[in-house]
Amino acid sequence: MSNASYAKPGYTLATYRLYDDKADFRKKAEGIAVGLTVGSWTDLPEVTRQKMEKHLGLVVDVRPHEPEGAAPGERYADITIAYPELNFSRDLPALLVTVFGKLSMDGRIKLLDLQPSAEFLQAFSGPRFGIAGVRETLGVDKRPLLMSIFKSVIGYDLDGLREQFLQQALGGVDLIKDDEILFENPLTPLERRVEVCVDAAREAEKTTGQKLIYFTNLTGPTSKLRENARRAIDAGANGFLFNVLSYGYDAMAELAADSGINVPIAAHPALAGAFYPSPYHGIAAPLLLGKLTRIAGADLSLFPSPYGSVVMPKEENLAVQAALIDPSLPLRAPFPVPSAGIHPGLVPLILRDFGHDVVVNAGGGVHGHPLGAAAGGRAFRQAIDAVLAGRDLAEAAKEHEELRIAVERWGVRNA
Amino acid sequence: MSNASYAKPGYTLATYRLYDDKADFRKKAEGIAVGLTVGSWTDLPEVTRQKMEKHLGLVVDVRPHEPEGAAPGERYADITIAYPELNFSRDLPALLVTVFGKLSMDGRIKLLDLQPSAEFLQAFSGPRFGIAGVRETLGVDKRPLLMSIFKSVIGYDLDGLREQFLQQALGGVDLIKDDEILFENPLTPLERRVEVCVDAAREAEKTTGQKLIYFTNLTGPTSKLRENARRAIDAGANGFLFNVLSYGYDAMAELAADSGINVPIAAHPALAGAFYPSPYHGIAAPLLLGKLTRIAGADLSLFPSPYGSVVMPKEENLAVQAALIDPSLPLRAPFPVPSAGIHPGLVPLILRDFGHDVVVNAGGGVHGHPLGAAAGGRAFRQAIDAVLAGRDLAEAAKEHEELRIAVERWGVRNA
After folding, report:
1. Taking 70 as the threshold, does the pLDDT of residue A273 lie above it?
2. ipTM score here?
3. Contact A271 B222 (CB under 8 A)
4. pLDDT per residue over A226-247, tens digit each?
5. CATH number for the domain harbouring residue B255
């Protein structure tokens, strides 16, 4: 799925897993390659064929999986089709409708991967910041970043939100994100929310000496997203959270390409569970939350961690990360943000699995600290520093009260 | 799923099917109701509870399905949660992210239905035309409508497209739609395509005496959709096809609400197979292609018929139709368009299953007629007239050459 040589010039490769107990998989693949491009081929006159050949899809690979004595439902093939990019415009709705529009409804078939050509990808600016740009904004060179999430947002007024923000910021987190279910509302309207949170960030900076990005949830009617983003930026916003799957990838790609929206975007995976978990249907997580999210310009991509309550298998998690940072893709790499169920005792595991270009993202693991959210943030920072120094977490906990209490509460899962 | 009394004032009801071999379903439901709204409840002080109560989600119903000796994977419950509409803005991204954002990733859970309140729905204009409006535009009172699809579009120039259009129009079809994979391209650019097809429609009208709507595929960057729509309308467009799931429902809702885009919209189900077929994940077809498509303003909704190669079970098909025409929803009703694998011999079955407020939609069943596309259209019209007159199709075929040949080719499946 990675290290594709981007790719066959003028063609996008699409790889599917197709389950069928009886099908001739090669014939099926040929049917797709013709059916989703020129419509028919064998019955075309030679002169028409010559005209149509450049529009014709090609079967690149068919790998059947047909174990001896396969039980019903076990037989499948991974097939790869090359689609001429001449056939669709340079945008993600056109690409997705072409390769998985009608086909998504044609039996048990899951879209595993897409490899657009380098030329196709030139139409996308991709992440404006990516890992390096976010690090530069924060002035943090190599350390894994720490993000925290508000505990509760709905029903809170500006004072309540500010106080939550301040406590998180005082703990030394690098990034704070809105809850994805915080929409425009009378208690904490967009611009006022940005103002009070940015003000709290400034206040905390006096103590922590640290910069901070606040990812404000960018919401509203599709046609007002840019305008809302600019209003928020005028009010001081320095980052946006975006529920990309509820608006479509193209809406995010347009935000990311807009030079007036010069702040990082964190893509939230809300609704992703409608796409990726079935082995038989949908779009695989490494494509959905990895490659497509990157092409569409996210600077951070959140996805369910393999550690918590809302889980994705570790192998799939690492494939999402691989797609986000794959060096063969000619676009900046977004930060992977494995989320849900994270506490300081998991930091050794997270850094072992994801390396240092990762965002450690916690909600309950910050707010649930017995000494409060600021202590919760400090416990995470202490854990990160300990792991970076090659120290045992339980040992380091002896020297740091916040970490010690966190470890007492949640335990340690060493790498 | 239908006949909801729209609904609990101030609340949207969401119904899920949740598979779990061990869970206490009521406890799980309570966790969702709290977790996706106020975040926590039992540990809140009384004074905070009073403030938060109006934001708290409520468990409305829990219906466990726990048959004696259930095999692993068989145990489930249908649960209904009421979400205060105070918590989210009046748009579909906010609604979907609230009720199925994070939750979609939380194990085996499928979103079955949503019942927003009448007040919430007031924010949506819904279909501008609906069944009645499309009928009025065409001047066709009661008869089921006939739609045809281009045979091949990719690689065709304007002359080739016009000729295909003309042949279809001469057959007496009411509606012709672009292929959903026809995007902006140098051979048949939007405005030129509209001009030649509308011109062909006028030419055919001289023979058929019939009005016709041409659903041009509306594509391009999200922020240019309205502009492209207006350009097409200025060039004579009188309908749009829209790949709604690739742009998000909100993009369509904004088009439908735009008084400058005063033509019907046909929603194409491209990508829908990524959402509805799994019993364990995603969004049920009657909600996805029925109710949400209607709320988002489609005048026609296409979905895979139960008759053809790309199939959806008939029960699910009829549930999609029921959601589209449910009289308790305070919005116009879109035409159901069961698509794929349709030939004239299926008309008795389609009209039995869907009644007369249906669009009979055919591609191969028109173009594959041995006497050509115009004869294919006539065969369909003859079949529709015969069924409306209560006649046996095989009998009627004796009097109509086109129908006779179609029946010879594809057979008859009587109701």
Report:
1. yes
2. 0.96
3. no
4. 999 999 999 999 999 999 999 9
5. 3.20.20.110
pLDDT-derived band at A310, boundaries 50, 70, 90: low
Considering the domain architecture, whether residues B139 and B227 belong to the same structural domain is answered as: yes
Answer whether B105 sits within 8 Å of A247, measured CB to CB.
no
Please name the member of A89, A97, A152 whose beta carbon is closest to the beta carbon of B39: A152
Closest CA to B366 of B397, B333, B330, B403: B403
Which single residue is written with the structure tokens 């173009």? B367
Check B180 against A36: CB less than 8 A apart: no
Burial class (CB in 10 A: 0-12, 13-18, 19+), B119: middle
Among the partner-chain residues B36, B108, B155, the one whose CB lies closest to the CB of A38 is B155
> Do residues A149 and A77 share a domain?
no
CB contact under 8 A, A181 and B98: yes
Q: Are residues A188 and A217 in the same domain?
A: yes
What is residue A1's predicted lDDT score, i.e. its pLDDT?
42
**Same domain, yes or no: B76 and B110:** yes
* B115 lies in the same domain as B134: no
A136 and A106 in a common domain: no
pLDDT digits (tens, 9 = 90+) for A350-404: 999 999 999 999 999 999 999 999 999 999 999 999 999 999 999 999 999 999 9
> Which residues in B lie closer than 8 A to residue A220 (C-beta atoms)?
89, 91
Average of per-residue pLDDT across B371-392: 97
Please give the full DSSP string across B12-29, using - where no structure is assigned. Answer: EEEEEEEE-SS--HHHHH
- Our count of domains for chain A comes to 2
From A251's Cα to the closest Cα of chain B, the distance in A is: 6
Q: What is the CA radius of gyration of chain A?
A: 23
Q: How far is CA B107 from CA A281, B18, B129, B281, in A?
A: 16, 8, 40, 8
Q: Are residues A280 and A324 in the same domain?
A: yes
User: Domain check: are A233 and A142 in the same one?
Assistant: yes
Q: Which of B154, B183, B273 sits opposite A94 (nearest CB)?
A: B183
Whether A102 is a known active-site residue: answer yes
